[in-house]
Write a structure and sequence with these properties.
- It is a single chain.
- This protein has about 700 residues and is mostly beta strands.
- The protein folds into six domains: about 120 residues, Immunoglobulins (Immunoglobulin-like), CATH 2.60.40; about 100 residues, Immunoglobulin-like (Sandwich), CATH 2.60.40; about 120 residues, Immunoglobulin-like (Sandwich), CATH 2.60.40; about 55 residues, no CATH class; about 100 residues, Jelly Rolls, CATH 2.60.120.380; about 120 residues, Sandwich (Jelly Rolls), CATH 2.60.120.380.
- Strands 21, 23, 24, 27, 28 and 29 form a six-stranded mixed β-sheet that branches. Strands 2, 4, 7, 10 and 11 form a five-stranded mixed β-sheet that branches. The protein has a five-stranded mixed β-sheet with strand order 37-40-45-42-43, with no helix packed on it.
- The longest helix has 6 residues.
- The chain is globular.
- About 35% of the residues are buried.
Length: about 700
């Protein structure tokens, strides 16, 4: 878009229409100065017009030019002025004279400028070379942090500014290393691990000559597999088969689950052996799409870039891949099953290059030149990604509504040549403009708009940086229950979350449909509701807010076994009598429950702690302490990195611990609430895994 600023005009004249006896000494309107303009094919030209009239008469606006301009341009009133817009096509190359006129009914003023239309072929905006795919995974079993390398190229700018679009991921740190590279690092807190396992990262690269380029990237936090959670895990069915093709490789799986999947499955792919168990952090992550069926029983697919497309005829390349699926068995919390298929390893196939060329036509997506339809046809980054084009020397070599490029393009494989391009230089037509609701602009927590009780008809729009989130402020003057129901369409997957004044998650609902609900009884204060989407598109939704004033549940009442808050008052657990079980026990804030076990050297004990966690204030842990009070297994709020999410200290519903002791002695198994958490629980302790499954 080109905006004309107030600079001297190339030519300007004014005259009076002398109509005897009509207007007397009326003064003519005067146009603000205009300047010549230059724009490119496919780019919108905007000229803002303004004028003064000493008599304050109503003004009318007009323009005249050649028929190419008048056929495509518009002139619309804009307050006291007017806006001239025109998006030229390839047929409009060259200079055009445009004359603007303003009239007050009797007198007028006019100015003529020259608009030069030039060719601007291909994208000059920054392009992300790294990170690849649609996201990456932080495997907490391998480390507490994820580091995302960032590499950008720009065809006409030596450097760009890297950034992270709102809403940012709390705790993420972006460091720009030089003009075109950087890193983004994220070490999720225990609370973040407990509140969600998918985070939407929106990286930006800005050369200040084009709109910022945005890379949407999903960070998946992989913790426990949910083996101790209720319900059954998903089942993944797949029959791997070798491929002989130049096209990208389709991978199709069938996934079934009794309650349905929580998120879209993820496909991890690699051209090198990821090992056993596979290192997901070293593989390219792709989000699968539902081809048929439902989230309970559906066929899911993803396209993997062809590793053999750049090889010679008859050569082949291996491809390893893994599928991850998470169910939604714990509707109130985050104790869900995550399955990696195949179990303990990865599927492997061979992809062979059959020779020849692919069938990719102009504007078809591609990842290699060989996928495009003929000799000399190139796979070129154009618009929002790489597309196929057709080799040419003359316009007559191209189909209708296309022309042979003036410039030479460089392909993803480094080949160069002129290519047939669409006359409008658009491969991916923009979606129709989304008409946002009247409560915009409320795209961040800082700009949340107050939401009154009742039913509201609203709209979720896509934005240049991904999803245009909607945030709503709810102020409580007394203890109350907040209940909110979201009901949207199927264009995107809308989700709903409730946060407190410090930005901590209170409750969330994030199923695979756009029907979500949150509910929480909370103290007086400021809260925010967040509506966000997976996928881009316009989606109308209803948001129904109900605030029920009144006290929440009574204060925490401890169980009848108090006091059992330390070694001297610990409950005795005699494992010589068999497994120990206790039910409906209670942890109140700052009040641990201690259990005394006598274990012989070489014995291994198993313990399971069963509870439902729907928010971070209900998180319970198991800790093992020796007779002298030293913590053998466990962590504290001051040392969260000592937490072992696979052995008693996760941030989700239910815990399991197993340990072998080397010294015969008394040991203390402690049930504690993380950071003041409160919850009821059941506990089982035994000397074999079968005692406490």
């Amino acid at each position: 878009m080109v905006v004309i600023t107030s600079t001297p005009a190339r030519s300007r004249f004014a005259w009076l229409l002398a109509l005897a006896g009509c207007k007397g000494q009326d003064a003519a309107p005067e146009l603000f100065p205009l300047a010549d303009a230059q724009t490119a094919v496919g780019a919108e030209l905007l000229i803002v017009l303004g004028a003064t009239d000493p008599d304050g008469d109503p003004l009318t606006w007009a323009f005249r030019s050649d028929e190419r301009v008048t056929a495509g341009a518009t002139l619309e009133p804009d307050g006291a002025g007017a806006r001239f817009t025109w998006t030229p096509t390839i047929d409009d190359l060259g200079p055009h004279e445009v004359t603007f006129t303003v009239q007050d009914g009797w007198l007028l003023d006019s100015a003529t400028i020259e608009v030069l239309v030039v060719a601007s072929e291909g994208s000059t905006a920054p392009v992300f070379v790294q990170p690849l795919g649609t996201g990456t995974t932080l495997d907490l079993g391998r480390g507490p942090c994820v580091e995302v390398p960032i590499v950008v190229t720009d065809p006409d700018t030596p450097g760009v500014t890297l950034g992270e679009a709102e809403p940012r991921i709390d705790g993420g740190e972006l460091v720009q290393l030089d003009e075109l590279t950087g890193t983004w690092t994220f070490c999720p807190t225990r609370e973040q691990i407990g509140s969600g396992d998918r985070y939407a990262l929106q990286l930006t690269a800005d050369d200040f000559e084009n709109p910022p380029t945005v890379k949407l990237y999903t960070i998946v936090v992989l913790g426990e597999n949910g083996s101790s959670c209720p319900g059954d895990p998903p089942t993944v069915e797949h029959a791997p088969a070798d491929v002989r093709s130049l096209a990208d490789v389709p991978v199709t799986v069938r996934i079934r689950d009794d309650q349905g999947l929580k998120f879209e499955p993820l496909l991890y792919a690699s051209s090198t052996d990821p090992g056993e168990p596979p290192d997901l952090t070293a593989m390219t992550q792709l989000t699968m799409t539902l081809a048929s069926g439902t989230t309970r029983d559906g066929t899911w697919t993803a396209l993997v870039p062809n590793p053999a497309a750049r090889l010679s005829t008859g050569e082949d390349a291996p491809l390893w891949y893994v599928v991850a699926a998470t169910d939604n068995d714990d509707l109130e919390g985050s104790c869900d099953h995550t399955v990696l298929a195949p179990e303990g390893g990865s599927w492997s196939i061979t992809v062979e290059n059959p020779g020849g060329r692919g069938d990719g036509g102009i504007c078809d997506p591609c990842t290699a030149d060989a996928q495009c339809g003929g000799a000399g046809d190139l796979c070129v980054v154009f618009g929002d990604g790489p597309h196929c084009f057709a080799d040419c020397e003359l316009d007559t070599d191209c189909p209708a509504d296309h022309y042979c490029s003036f410039s030479t393009f460089t392909s993803v494989d480094g080949e160069r040549g002129r290519q047939c391009l669409p006359n409008d230089l658009v491969c991916d037509p923009p979606e129709p403009e989304c008409q946002d609701d009247a409560l915009e602009d409320n795209d961040t927590r800082a700009t949340a708009v107050p939401l009154s009780e009742g039913l509201h008809h609203l709209t979720s729009c896509p934005a240049s940086t991904g999803d245009d989130e909607d945030w709503y402020a709810v102020r409580l003057t007394a203890e109350s229950t907040i209940e909110a129901i979201l009901d949207g369409g199927s264009a995107t997957d809308l989700d709903l979350a409730l946060y407190d004044a410090s930005g901590l998650l209170v409750d969330r609902s994030d199923g695979l449909s756009s029907l979500e609900a949150v509910s929480a009884c909370v103290p007086a204060g400021d809260y925010t509701l967040r509506v966000y989407a997976w996928g881009q598109g316009e989606n109308d939704y209803d948001l129904d807010l109900d605030v029920i004033r009144g006290s929440c549940a009574p204060q925490c009442t401890d169980d009848a076994n108090e006091p059992d808050d330390g070694p001297s008052t610990a409950r005795w657990v005699d494992l010589d009598l068999g497994r120990y079980r206790t039910f409906d026990q209670q942890i109140c804030s700052g009040d641990d429950d201690w259990y005394d076990l006598y274990l012989f050297a070489g014995e291994t004990f198993w313990a399971t702690l069963t509870f439902t966690q729907s928010n971070p204030t209900q998180d319970l842990d198991l800790v093992l302490v020796d007779e002298l009070g030293y913590v053998l297994l466990g962590c504290t709020e001051d040392f969260p990195l000592l937490c072992d999410p696979t052995n008693g200290q996760s941030a989700t519903s239910n815990e399991a611990m197993a340990a072998m002791v080397t010294v015969s002695d008394d040991y203390y198994l402690v049930v504690r609430g993380w950071d003041g958490s409160e919850n009821d629980y059941d506990l089982c302790v035994g000397l074999s895994r079968s005692d406490c499954p």
